[in-house]
Amino acid sequence: MSKKKSPNITNILELFLLVSATNEDPQNLEKGLIVGKRWRIIDKLGEGGCGSVYKAALKAESNFVKGGSVLKLEVQILKRLEGRKYVTQLFQSAKKKTYSYMVMTLLGRSLNELFKQYPICTVSTQVRVGINILYGLKQLHEIITTSRLKNMKISYLLNKKYFISFVSIIELEDFEVGYIHRDVKPANLAIGRRGQAIHIIHILDFGLSREYVIRNNGSVKLRMPRTNTLFRGTVRYCSANTHTRSEQGRPDDLWSMVYVLVEMRGPLPWDNIRGKDEIGMAKFQTLDTTLCRNSPKELLDITTHLRTLDYYTRPNYFYIYERLHNVMQKFNYK
């Protein structure tokens, strides 16, 4: 296997660095500082709950974080997602005396930023974004057995017209990733910075993610769902199920995707409601027809499918893709 090339000096500005606080306050790393013998800090981009982000591509956190390392989890997930088109890419990670860091691709603007500029999007943009998010979530969720992959290839041969885009993504994946994101929202979805990547939505920030499978001696099985779990996610975009403190599964990420897509065409039904419990109640009480009133009917088909699923059930990703792609065909979107 060929060794991954290091980014050259022109690419280094396309990366970013995240660093967390310690007792010595390593969040304030000086401009020009070399980290990991390769990464020169160009500028500080901002701060968040788990660390600071610097232009030069580094994400870091304190080695004294209570409750365990978020960075360690992100590194583990990004290693499994190496080479995937719809997620940020990891270049390097390491642990220093007082902090740990990881170096990742610097992406462009988040959907949160773009939606502020363009609060109402076209249906064409809505379904394109939906297909991109779906691809990324499938890459994160999926565990594909060899036999299932063969069956997918057979289906592709029988029906190339509809499978070509979706199966091409499948064939690029490893067979095991197996995580739930648990915080799908516009702020955690971003376009690339240049070239073709500008047209791709990337999923980022896996700090709240959870592995939903157990691996043991080559076998893989679902974790038993917990009851009365801690709340994880963003109130505005998390599934109704999340408000009940139930274990989140693959359908919950897809519900968050639906809420993001709905908001692209108008405000969510709970837009003016305050309070976590009140918003949760609104999600349970809102009819899917009301939720999707400004969207193509295919989005309603997707919510109908999601309501047939539970924690154990694998979503029909191809069906969801097909419904979104149907909108592209119906209106001759290219």
From TrEMBL:
Domain Protein kinase: 39-328
Gene3D superfamilies: Transferase(Phosphotransferase) domain 1
Tagged with keyword Signal: yes
Keywords attached to this entry: Signal
Record flagged with keyword Amino-acid biosynthesis: no
Annotated transmembrane regions: none
Signal sequence residues: 1-21
An annotated Gene Ontology molecular function: protein kinase activity
InterPro entries xrefs: CK1_Ser-Thr_kinase (IPR050235), Kinase-like_dom_sf (IPR011009), Prot_kinase_dom (IPR000719)
Protein name: Protein kinase domain-containing protein
Source organism of the structure: Onchocerca flexuosa
